[in-house]
Each structure stands twice: as structure tokens, then as C-alpha cells.
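Hi support team,

I'm filing this because I wasn't sure whether my run with adenosine-5'-diphosphate finished correctly. The job status page said complete, but I'd like someone to confirm that the output block is well-formed before I use it downstream. Pasting the exact inputs I used:
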Amino acid sequence: MRLELWLGDITAVAADAIVNAANSSLLGGGGVDGAIHRAAGPALLEECRTLGGCPTGEARITRGYRLPARHVIHTVGPRWQGGERGEPALLARCYQSVFALVEAHGLRTVAFPSISTGIYGYPLAQAARIALREIHAALARLPGVEKVTAVLFSPVDLDVYRQALADVSGGR
Ligand code: ADP
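And here is everything the job wrote out:
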């Protein structure tokens, strides 16, 4: 299996890149963004300052500094506003933008958090289906990608992703 689900802290993952669920300033925030900046050290923020922000749905790559990961790919998920404001397409675009950078930089391993489902309030089960659908599509398209890890931060989140994986794999 080139896709694995893992319960834990993404800042501990030694992948070619870990993905950050950032905000559009790229200047740090709460949740996984704060954890990544704390673990990477201040040089990450310095590099982020040079990037001039990132629109929702797009992604930017930096070095990983003190993280075990070589790179951080920062993407900005949509804030949930009820689901009629283009949120599903924007969330899918985050995954597509990340994989475009994975391909451009020849990265083989990448770990994702559950983008938008914390502070941004995206319903977890719906986000999980989009995440897994986009990861499957990217794996089919990119043979150079050896492993994608979806990192879940709580057992409940892991269960929701497991169920979504069963649904997506079963074609339902
Ligand atoms: P967003 O603003 O995109 O919703 P958050 O960081 O608030 O981003 O939440 C995204 C997901 O990341 C949530 O499921 C949250 O529980 C999870 N998360 C928070 N810290 C970590 C961490 N250190 N490693 C992995 N996932 C984390």
C-alpha cells in the first residue's frame, strides 16, 4: 500500500515533505501550523516571510529546517462556510497543488495533516473523502511517489479516515 493512515504528530514524520495547513499569510498560526513552526525553529518563519503569502487552494514549498522532514509544503485550506462557497473544490485544489510541487521537486514521500478540519471547521468525514480521493488520483498519476501518509491527530479522526478509506476503496 502506498497510502497509509497514521495516528500521531506530523512534526515527527521523516518524509521528503510534510504538509502544513497554513493560513494565507504563511506567517504562522495555531493548530498544526504552530506545531510545525515550533518544531522547525525560527528559520522557517524567515523563509516564509519571503514568500508573500499564499491564496486559498495554492501551495508553497520551503525547507524543513530542524524538522526530520526535508521540506514543508504549505497549503491554505478553505474555511468552512456551510459548503456552498466552493469549499469542496478549494479543498481538492489544496491536495492537487501539493502534489504539483511533489512532482516538480521529485519527492517520493509526503505526509498530510487533515487540512481545514481543525480551526477552519470543515466537516471531517466530508474532508476525508476529498483527501483520500485526491491522494488516490495523485498516486495513480505519479509512479515516483512511493508513500503518502495521512497523519491523524486523534483516534476519532483516524476512525473517520478509516471509514472514508473503506468507502472510497469500495467505490461507494
Ligand atoms: P485548519 O486551520 O486547516 O483547520 P488546523 O491546524 O486547525 O488547520 O487543523 C488541521 C488538522 O490538524 C486538525 O485535524 C488538527 O487536529 C490536526 N493537527 C493539529 N496539530 C497537529 C499535529 N501536530 N500533527 C498532525 N495533525 C495535527
